[in-house]
C-alpha cells in the first residue's frame, strides 16, 4: 500500500476513516475493507462491514462496522434516516438559488450504469430528495454543502446534472474531465449513534488540497484558520 488510509477513530465496534477517491467502498479485492485489513494486519478474518457506500470516484468520511451486531444497528439508522450524511459538491455551473431542495423520481440503468430522472413514479423509479446550500462561487464553479434525505445510487450526481450543473469532472453526467482520480463530491460529515454506547458521534474532514477543491479560497481559508468553519450548514 503506497499511502495508508487515514483512520479518524476506531474501537471494538466501529472504524471511521477517509476513503480515498478511486477506491471501491465494498468488500472485494482491493476495496476499502480489504485495504484496511492489510493496513491493520488483521487478515481476512478481521470483521469490517460496509453499512453505507460511496461511489468509487468519491472520497471522504466513512464508517465501517467491526461486528455483525454493530452493522445491523448502524444499517437500521441508515434505513430510519437518523444516520446524518453531509457532502461537499463542486458544481460545474451554478444554481441560481443560494439554497434549495431538489425532489425527483430517480431510476438507475444497469446497462449504462447511470441514474436518470423520470417524469413520474413507477415500478423502476424511487423518490430522491436532497437539500443544498451554496458556500462559494469561483470561476464558473460553485461549492455547495449537500444533505441527502434519501439515499439513491448516484443521487447527487444525477439530480444536479438534470438541472444543468453536473459535478466537476463527472464525465458520466456531462462534465469535462479533471486531472484527478475523483470527481467534485466529498463525504464531509457523518453523525450517528454509537451501536454499543448509545452516544451520538460526529466526524468531519475537509477534502484534500487537489482539483477541483483547490480552486476555492474559501476552503483554503478554513484549513488555515482564516475563515469561519461552516459546521453545520444544516441542523442535525
UniProtKB/TrEMBL annotation:
A GO molecular-function descriptor: pseudouridine synthase activity
SUPFAM superfamilies: Pseudouridine synthase
InterPro entries documented for this protein: PsdUridine_synth_cat_dom_sf, PsdUridine_synth_RsuA/RluA, RluA_PseudoU_synthase
Limits of the Pseudouridine synthase RsuA/RluA-like domain: 14-162
GO biological processes: enzyme-directed rRNA pseudouridine synthesis
Top-level taxon: Bacteria
Catalytic activity: a uridine in RNA = a pseudouridine in RNA
Family in the record: Belongs to the pseudouridine synthase RluA family.
The protein, known as: RNA pseudouridylate synthase
Amino acid at each position: 500500500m503506497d499511502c495508508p488510509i487515514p483512520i479518524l477513530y476506531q474501537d471494538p465496534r466501529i472504524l471511521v476513516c477517509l476513503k480515498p477517491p478511486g477506491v471501491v467502498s465494498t468488500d472485494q479485492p482491493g476495496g476499502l475493507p480489504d485495504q484496511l485489513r492489510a493496513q491493520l494486519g488483521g487478515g481476512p478474518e478481521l470483521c469490517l462491514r460496509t453499512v453505507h457506500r460511496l461511489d468509487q470516484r468519491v472520497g471522504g468520511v466513512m464508517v465501517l462496522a467491526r461486528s455483525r451486531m454493530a452493522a445491523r444497528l448502524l444499517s437500521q439508522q441508515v434505513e430510519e434516516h437518523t444516520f446524518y450524511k453531509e457532502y461537499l459538491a463542486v458544481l460545474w455551473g451554478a444554481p441560481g438559488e443560494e439554497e434549495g431542495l431538489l425532489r425527483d423520481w430517480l431510476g438507475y440503468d444497469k446497462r449504462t450504469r447511470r441514474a436518470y430522472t423520470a417524469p413520474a413514479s413507477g415500478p423502476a423509479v424511487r423518490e430522491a430528495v436532497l437539500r443544498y446550500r451554496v458556500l462559494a462561487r469561483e470561476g464558473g464553479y460553485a461549492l455547495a454543502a449537500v444533505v441527502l434525505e434519501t439515499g439513491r445510487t448516484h443521487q447527487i450526481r444525477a439530480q444536479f446534472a438534470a438541472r444543468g450543473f453536473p459535478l466537476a469532472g463527472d464525465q458520466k453526467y456531462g462534465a469535462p474531465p479533471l486531472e484527478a482520480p475523483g470527481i467534485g463530491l466529498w463525504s464531509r460529515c457523518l453523525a450517528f449513534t454509537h451501536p454499543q454506547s448509545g452516544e451520538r458521534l460526529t466526524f468531519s474532514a475537509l477534502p484534500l488540497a487537489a482539483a477541483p477543491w483547490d480552486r476555492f479560497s474559501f476552503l483554503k481559508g478554513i484549513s488555515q484558520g482564516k475563515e469561519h468553519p461552516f459546521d453545520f450548514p444544516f441542523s442535525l
